[in-house]
Design brief:
This protein has 19 helices and 15 strands. It has 579 residues and is α/β, with parallel strands linked by helices. The strands form three sheets. The chain has a six-stranded antiparallel sheet with strand order 2-1-4-5-6-7. The chain has a six-stranded mixed sheet with strand order 8-12-13-3-14-15. The protein has a three-stranded antiparallel sheet with strand order 9-10-11. A hairpin with a 5-residue loop joins strand 5 and strand 6. Helix 6 crosses helix 12. The longest helix has 47 residues.
Length: 579
């Protein structure tokens, strides 16, 4: 449950702090006052996109923080949970503790694009933040009901109701594996003449690369050696000059350091304060002496070998030609050539004994195909079982939302096949799924996406959200203008339903309809103000006479007349107990 929300310098909001309780809360205000900014701030906090344009003009950063209560999250368990089923499990899997069952979430963004997020005192990525917050809050966007116009989304809703989402993901991976193996089989089953030509080409390539006896990183090592051999004279001249300066008689640096060391040692014997400097001189002497010895050794070993230079250049030329043939470019890493060798060997192995290998591959594809169809049938059976209960549940809720007599159904058809033998299957199974509706008694069931109005789509989505909310652990539901396209008695029904939903969930709703707002346990008003030439949105809870005035404004646009105020009082007494 969301308990506290603090928004600072986000869009038009300068600094607002809100505290929430259980039940049903509405946000209201004039059009353009900034109601949707609240949803934007929450979306940002919960892992939504971060954009520098979200920062209030002149501010150094935008930040949003919130305190959530997390049931069962007071202890820390260092054990991992690969698939946590609640916010508490997610926290325990990462060793994040709550304080008295509460957790603080924070996120900021700065003008340079830098952003950061924390869950408790642990910094997290945006992906981790979104994963965790998905256990806490479900936001129904202002136009989310439009997704019902996309038939492809209907399958996702049905799979969620049937508890198949994870299993469908596994099926999709299995289907992708089958598609890949079929593609390899098709390649394998090409014309014998073409296969024979490619086999000879691969044998030649494999022999040529194997004969070269390539070593990892050999091209880079040889290139460095070639540079050294070609630069022999310059290197010799530079090292010879260094040796001269370091070790040439009394004028050499080593002899000078000896004299400095003797002088330092003598001075130190007379004044102990020179101890540190004497130690540094001694260390410098040994370091210079060591450097001189190493340069001398290097000089003695430095030889020019024309035969080695020729061998290196010939080897580099061989590698250049191999890259030209078998890598993406002559500057590509040598590993591309060895990768080509691996693929050539695999092709040779698979195609040398064509008959047996092909038969084995065909059997593998056939076995996998049967497994895919078997899994698809399990998915289809589960969907059909869930479709009936989903229809009944949606119809029951729609009846409460002013759509009494509406029939809702789920059409599940086998995908069309190319013939009567082969079953058509896709990455999500063998089913084509579409929601159907009959909004008027006696009317035939027709596709929801084609006949439903905006208001009907909103209510169908609300019904679906309600069904899913009852079966998950998400404690907070947010509806951004669920009242789109409705009014009158329908709005009253929606308000009543949201209040019913708030018995088990914390419900927030942005609305411009008084018929919904009067059902709320709490009402928060968003107002726009201009100060010093800067526009800002202010958010505060309205109670008593102030709430009466806000309901009156929502009813008639006039919060000053006694008639409007009395109408507002009557509705509040009737639907919210006079709050």
């Amino acid at each position: 449950m969301l308990e506290e929300l603090t928004i600072k310098d986000f869009a038009l909001i300068e600094n607002d702090h809100l505290e929430f309780g259980r039940g049903f809360t509405v946000f209201s205000g004039e059009t353009g006052a900034g109601k949707s900014i609240l949803i934007g701030a929450l979306s940002f906090l919960l892992g939504g996109r971060a954009d520098v344009q979200q920062i209030r003009a002149g501010a150094s950063e935008a930040s949003v923080s919130a305190v959530f209560s997390v049931e069962g999250g007071s202890s820390v368990d260092s054990g991992s949970q690969e698939s946590p089923e609640s916010a508490a499990e997610w926290l325990m899997a990462r060793g994040i503790s709550t304080e008295n069952g509460r957790i603080l979430i924070r996120r900021f963004i700065r003008p340079n694009g830098k952003s950061g997020a924390w869950i408790g005192d642990v910094q997290v990525t945006r992906t981790e933040l979104a994963a965790f917050s998905s256990f806490l809050v479900d936001i129904h966007g202002q136009h989310e009901h439009q997704s019902l116009m996309k038939v492809s989304e209907h399958r996702k809703f049905l799979d969620a109701r049937a508890g198949l989402t994870a299993r469908v993901s596994e099926f999709t991976a299995l289907y992708a594996e089958l598609a890949a193996k079929r593609a390899r089989l098709d390649e394998f089953a090409g014309s014998e003449q073409e296969r024979g030509r490619k086999l000879e080409m691969m044998r030649f390539a494999a022999a040529e690369i194997e004969e070269a006896g390539l070593k990892p990183g050999e091209d880079e090592t040889l290139a460095a050696e070639e540079t050294k051999l070609l630069s022999y004279e310059k290197i010799y001249s530079a090292v010879d000059e260094i040796n001269g300066m370091l070790s040439s008689g009394d004028s050499g640096v080593v002899q000078m350091m000896k004299r400095i060391r003797r002088g330092s040692s003598g001075a130190f014997s007379l004044d102990p304060e020179l101890s540190a400097l004497d130690s540094r001189v001694e260390a410098a002497f040994y370091e210079i002496s060591d450097i001189a010895d190493e340069f001398s050794s290097y000089m003695q070993e430095l030889v020019f070998d024309p035969a080695r230079l020729q061998a290196v250049q010939e080897r580099l030329s061989l590698i250049f030609n191999l890259k030209k043939k078998y890598a993406s470019s002559v500057s590509a890493p040598l590993s591309e050539v060895t990768d080509y060798l691996s693929s050539a060997r695999r092709f040779i192995e698979e195609n040398s004994a064509a008959g047996g290998a092909r038969a084995a591959m065909e059997k593998e594809v056939a076995d996998l195909g049967r497994k895919v169809l078997s899994e698809a049938k399990i998915l289809s059976d589960a969907r059909r079982a869930a479709a009936s209960s989903l229809s009944s549940e949606v119809e029951a809720i729609l009846s409460k939302l002013g759509m009494d007599g509406t029939r809702f159904g789920v059409s599940i058809r086998d995908k069309s096949a190319s013939d009567d033998v082969v079953q058509k299957c896709g990455p999500y199974g063998t089913d084509d799924i579409e929601f159907m509706i009959s909004a008027n008694p006696g009317a035939p069931m027709l596709p929801l996406a084609k006949i439903a109005s905006g208001g009907e789509l909103s209510r169908v989505m609300l019904a679906l959200k309600t069904i899913f909310a009852m079966g998950d652990t998400v404690g907070t539901l947010i509806f951004d203008e669920i009242d789109t396209g409705i009014g009158g008695g329908v709005a009253v029904a929606v308000g009543e339903h949201l209040k019913f939903l708030a018995r088990t969930k914390q419900v927030f709703c942005i609305t411009h309809l008084a018929s919904i707002a009067v059902y709320a346990d709490n009402q928060i008003k968003v107002e726009k103000a201009v100060s010093g030439g800067i526009t800002s949105s202010n958010v505060h809870q309205v109670t008593g006479d102030e709430r009466v005035a806000e309901i009156a404004r929502m009813l008639s646009g006039d919060a000053d007349t006694e008639q409007s105020l009395e109408h507002a009082r009557t509705m509040l007494r009737k639907f919210s107990g006079g709050n």
